[in-house]
Amino acid sequence: MSIFIFSARVHDLIYQKSNIEYRLSKLTKRLRDVQQYAATIANGGISIGDLLNSPGSMMGRTLSYLGFAHNSALAYMNQNAPYMQQLWAQQMGQNQNPQQQQMMQQYIMRQLYAQGRDRAMQIETRNLKLEEDRLQQEKERLETLGKEITQELDEAKKARDQGIKDMAPKYTFA
Question: Are 153 and 14 in contact (CB under 8 A)?
Answer without folding.
Answer: yes
